[in-house]
Amino acid sequence: MDTLRDYKYTMESCNHCGQCRFILGPKMKGWEYAEVCPAYHRYKYDAYSGQGLINIAQELLEGTLNYEDDLLAHIYSCTTCGACDVNCKSVRDMEVLDTILALRVKCVEDGRGPMPQHKEYAGNVAARHNIYGRPHAQRSDWMFEGMRLSEGAATAYFVGCTTSYFYPDIARNTVKILQAGDVNFRLLKGEEHCCGAPLWRTGQREAAIKIAQQNLDTIRKLGIKTLITSCAECYGTFRGFYPRIAKPDFEVLHISEVVNRLLANGVLRPTGNVKMKVTYHDPCLLGRLSEPYVPWSGEIKPYGLHEPPKQWRRGTYGVYEAPRKVLRSIRGIQLVEMTRNEENAFCCGGGGGVPAAFPDFALSTARERIDEARSTGADAIVSSCPLCQSNLEKASGISGNGFRYLDFCELVAHAL
Amino acid sequence: MSLPRSIYKMFERVVGTEYISDRPHILAAYRHTSPQDGRKPASPDAVILPGNTEEVQAIVRICRRFGIKYNPVTSLLSVGMPPSDQLKVVLSLRRMNRVLEINEKDRYVVVEPAVRHVQLKPELMKRGLSYPVPSVGPSCSVMANFLAKGEHHNQHSTSRNNRYLLGYEWVMPTGEILRTGSLSNDAGWFCPDGPGPSLAGLVQRSNGVYTKAAIALDEWKGPRIMPAEGHTPSYKVRLPQDRHKVFIFKFPTLEKVRDVMVEMGKAEIGAAVLKFFYATAAVMFTVSANDFWNTWNSGLFQKELSKAVWVYLATRTPEEMAYEEGVMWDIVREMGGEEVDKSVRKIWEDNMDFFIIVSFLQRVLKLGGGWSPILHCESLPHSFEIAKTIPEFFNSFIDKGLVLNAPHNFQIIPIEYGHGAHIELLFFYDRFLPDAKMIPQELMKQSSEMDLRHQHYSPSPDKEQLYSNFQFWATKIRNAF
Q: What is the ipTM of this complex?
């Protein structure tokens, strides 16, 4: 497992070019909505950008900066959305986000991090297998009568903590969609534990590894070959974190990819008419951060030559098209795009443990995103992640005028 | 050194508690050692984020009163402050990011310092207007590039950026405001030289803080929205082929390259005509450093692009395109040119943002961050004379393994249809080499010595004669403060 020291090349290579803060040139649309980093947008200081955080990481590593008041809050105010990372990687061979995550690991290992609210996550996960401290026995309370589960199936639906306890309709709609598509699947039920995302992204690496290992053991024990998620955080974690622990031997699919395949094969045919103008919000861990992680170890030679060649995650192959294709296939839906979309999407503010530790900042970030969504003339913002839903719903409620959040699965299930 | 609380409080009263900080972790962003320099800059004692000209004035007055050095910044490519016993503050102007006026009729725009190219350029494209974006990257400050002599790929049909500067608002080191051009006579921003002498050259070497600038605009002949396809890092930007075309021709000698540029300037065709850097091109149009090495080691760019001319035709109508293309071919054939390999030309056809905003310019940093330019501004024929002498000092650096083996990695861009020209040698070095930070300094020194030997104009400010004697006046005025 990598440590902060492994990102020395990144820290030393930064030329402060500013690309980590702004939308990429080919995607430019105007003065508004050009900034991509929520923390830089909110707090204004350069130190909050990806550049600033890797500068801080380097100074902490080299011992020229101490853990002073406010430093921890500064480090944990990043939503770890990765916009800085893919924008930097459009021009450089640097690992900005992994450096930020490794910085958080260092904070934990040094006995300073994470934020108090995040410490509760680890305790809750250890005791009850979910970050919210809810009874594990209630994890499957969302289930409904008439579900057709195939207990021996090699395909499983991984529901996730936030969906199970707070957004049960996402799970119910996912099941309805899978059933409509004649997908044989099973649930992990009592053996499903937190995917580890909140621990991983707050630097609590050991706890994250432990819980991930439990899930991996379960998946292997049950012979699961395909894991379907309806949560972007779970999806991105299975693809971006689990390969750091063990070589993946199962496929991970987001429900939007499954629906897209079923539509392409003619198995699913939306018949409903949903007359609505919508815009789609790309969740960070389903979009730019969803490419599979491939471990690399080797040598960085003169002029940046990586030997052996490294497989970079630059955000090129995120799940961008599948949800859009599905939405376009629904009669009556008019899909319009925000300026910051796909790999340039502005975070909803719901990631990296920010809502727990800095709720005001999380909400102001979501409001910025809602403002952008409304600027398209859409009636609603659609996304496919319960954490995005939580934050964007709060902000859209504040914005008023009937603008609302819609879950992807809800729309699809309604259209079937 | 830390800012005395009494002074900190004075600054705080100007901008509010939210927009000043002396916390070491906040200041970390301004003292990082840049790989292209290698020298650790001094840490500022505070960073202040003024929101308007009045706040800048108040800050400058406090600095003047207490002898505090200040460095105004937006982008941070050259943020470093030199070591000094004086108190030092960074003025981050990023809150001053408004587009104050877009005058479509008189074709000018007024901006604050932190408006970036990636923000302004599309706003103007929507209105059928444009301006030349220097080769700095989309996230850099528009105003900084126009106050300085920003260089760009379209200078052949336009000019350097400072020629577009219509006026500016300058908070002088005393804290007073000076406005130049017609603005100084309450006549708006339309004219750079109001009654009295032009002060445009002052901005090159003056202290103080520039808080507004008016910039002249051109017509934009392309689509109103950038037509981008695909995903990072491999976007494609293709403009309508009936009015936008890119060609790359190779020639047997540099003299032919020069003559083609001269003739195209005389004919006044082409939005862009230039000889671009071949190694930089390989860096810019590959994704990873490994990809660069694969391309570079194939030898394709060296074979096709060491003596090549890029031509970008941008016209209002297909008929105009047919005319320009016809003239271009006449000139190219007369000079014995031939098209480069189709795969090379396609790179530019697929990335026409190269002529609009240079989206991936910052890839020049990709080989680890060690790079530096040597610049001259000369007449077109003289630029080619300079180019011929580059091997005299450059080859020894190659032979010693200190720089990338790319002796033809220079660009020459005509200015105003060949009335002037810009030549720039861009070199890459491995920043992990012992004493790597000495490489740019030594190269610059030897380049200057070569200039003296050959009686070239030197990039050194005191010897630059092409633009009259503004530098002497700038120095005198700076010393007056």
A: 0.94
